[in-house]
Amino acid sequence: MLAIDVKDLRKQFKVQKNREGLSGALKDLFKREYNEVRAVKDISFQIPQGEICGYIGENGAGKSTTIKMLTGILVPTSGDIRVNGYIPYKDREKFVGNIGVVFGQRSQLWWDIGVIESFRLLRKVYGVSEQDFRRRLDQLVERLDLGDLLNRPVRKLSLGQRMRCELVASLLHNPSILFLDEPTIGLDIVVKTAIREFLQELNREEGTTILLTTHDLQDIEALCSRVIMLDDGRIIYDGGLDELKNRWSRGREIQFQFTSHTPLAKLEQLTAGLGVTWKQESDLNATMWLPHTTNVSDALSIVTGGTAIRDIKIIETNTDEIVREIYRSGSASASAAATLLREEEPALR
Ligand SMILES: Nc1ncnc2c1ncn2[C@@H]1O[C@H](COP(=O)(O)OP(=O)(O)OP(=O)(O)O)[C@@H](O)[C@H]1O
Hints:
Helix content is about 40%, strand content about 25%.
């Protein structure tokens, strides 16, 4: 069964217009005017059970609005949503027992009481038996290393400690789908890594489906085999992360340091026919750019066979750069990728 099934989903907000000046404010009092903001524009996607899917896009792209509709907080303007077979905003009671939600910027824990008291309240909200609660809590506390935090009030926890508690809170009732909205925002690399490892383990061992929004693409690299990319309320890419990288990355750069002056003409002659381009940085340094179609080891063996080399460094385009370029162009289609390549190639020569 599909964990999430979304078809032609749309969300429009009505935003009040503010007219200028005192007379405008007076007019606003008597006759309000509204603008329509279309945050999510007829999107469709399906997520099978057990998948970890990244949901990414620039600020204002429509990610949180989608998550809010998927979790039943917002009612869609039009379109269909099924989460675990339920319509989130209609079947609230049955539905919430099977999902967990973490909003990185908001807490589901009570600020002034001990963490364990919040967990006990959530046990009652979700109707979890005392026995199941104890078993699950012990397991989660051990995995997320919460031991001595349980009796502290939430307001006295660091952000990293609170986020680990939020995860426990969202998983106490053993949901099959977990929605995470910016779960690693503001955390240091040690806590980020611990949370990523925990989520991987949860997915592997319990088959939990995870939909994750984040601005940290390392979360995506560490966790997601699939990524859905939004731009201005529309899906501009839905597929594998590797495919996205292959389609968009400019190829690889190899930086060479030679032991003696090696002229550009010699390098170009050596590698003629390989489709590579060269840029001379100094007498001893040059950079070779290889398209994906050229085998790295072929190119390397030709250059190392014909020159005297002191050092070599291979540089891949990183995901942040790739995604930034896609956001910039507003499209992840192959033709946009080709245009971008044509624009950027000369700079590498
Ligand atoms: N309650 C609301 N009323 C009016 N407009 C809204 C409301 N919520 C969101 N919007 C608008 O809808 C658009 C999408 O917002 P949304 O919060 O879903 O984006 P996002 O991708 O989650 O952004 P971010 O990464 O900044 O959290 C934005 O233009 C936003 O201003």
